[in-house]
Amino acid sequence: MRVLHVIPSLSPSQGGPSFALPAMARALRAQGMEVDVATTDDDGPGRRLSLGAGPVQREGFRVWAFPKQTEFYKVSLPLARWLNRHVRDYDLVHIHTVFSFATWAAARAAQRAGVPYLVRPLGVLNRWGMQQRRPWLKALSFRLLDKPLLDRAAGLHFTSTLEREEAAGLGLRTPARVLPLGLDLAEFEALPPATVFHEAFACTAGRPLALYLSRLDPKKNLEGLLEAWAQVPEPARLVIAGDGESAYAAGLRERAAALGLGDRVLWTGRLEGGLKRAALAAATLFVLPSRSENFGIALLEAMAAGLPCVSTPGVALAAEAEGAVRVVPAEAGPLAAALRELLGDADERARLATAARELARRKFTLLAMGRALKAWYEEVTHAPA
């Protein structure tokens, strides 16, 4: 079976989806499927990835990247033309996100060619996604463009029960399925020495570390985390590893300074590869305080690495990991209490770490994701098993 995945951006600046999709492609390749990905050259506002002309081979699948013409909706006319010419080459199209030109172009091309398509909304249909960032425009776009293409899809792919429940009030008629993401767990079970991180950031050596490893974005509730950290005593340090829009990141730093946090917060920028995994090895605990996450890939990575984790009810994975993740309200007070308690209780940290790793191994592997996707694809296309 030949499957085409379409996503507006594979830039690391876009957070979890840019890491989840390649993992999904690898999982499908392991199931014997031929996988291509079509995207744009987006690398965040005003930036472009340099991917070269034609398809780029990545870990057993091909990536076709086309230039974007606008930041808004990431319009790419070359992507639309390519989809119109080539969508018939595939048995199924799996589209990732809504409110994007790439989504509209892929769905329209698939409809005209009679190719079934699935849509993974990436959380933008939940309450937070619909109410934030131009809600009036989203409401108009949803009614005129997005709901019609979703209603014609062969299925909606939600990665958590919470995501499906929050989208239920939108009146969509399309069959929905919850199919969680998976990871290559080996990458997080064999971590580099913690000293690799300490050598890169000498101020962290010998101190308890609370690690935040995700994008800097308003929905992540970093303001609440900073207020909570102001209630956590020395000598612990908060490591904020991620980047985001420059004005927002600058505002967070100003907020930290106003709270008197000074050098008690380390801003590393986005970490990748070995240094990212070394940060997980060095951390005493992990914290993801988001108000809305349709899954929470960063949390899953920390769980797979065997870290005790603190998160909030808006993070869908945390809501499904009761007993393996400390889940507390997103307000500063409960966050601070949980962080103080875990930093001072090695036994509870060990219990949570073991439970988190075991849950990741049991439910969130590449093998499980690949098998479930293959079965769904065959059901949709009526291909023989």
Q: Outline of this structure?
A:
By secondary structure, the protein is an alpha/beta fold.
Describe this structure in words.
The longest helix is centred in the C-terminal third of the chain and has 18 residues, at 346-363. The model has no long low-confidence stretch (mean pLDDT 94). 43% of the residues lie in helices and 15% in strands. α9 (222-229) links the parallel β9 and β10 (237-241). The chain is globular. The chain is α/β, with parallel strands linked by helices and 385 residues long.
Described by the principal axes of the CA atoms, the overall outline is: globular
Radius of gyration: 21 Å
The level of helicity is 40-55%
Q: Low-confidence spans: pLDDT under 50, at least 5 residues? A: none
Termini distance? 11 Å
Kindly report the oligomeric state of this protein. Answer: single chain
Number of strands: 14
How would you spell out the order of helices and strands?
EHEEEHEHEHHEHEHHEHEHEHEHEHEHHH
Largest sheet: 8 strands, mixed
Beta fraction? 15-25%
Q: Structural class, judged by helices and strands?
A: alpha/beta
Rounded mean pLDDT score: 94
Major β-sheet strand ordering: 3-4-2-1-5-6-7-8
How many helical elements?
16
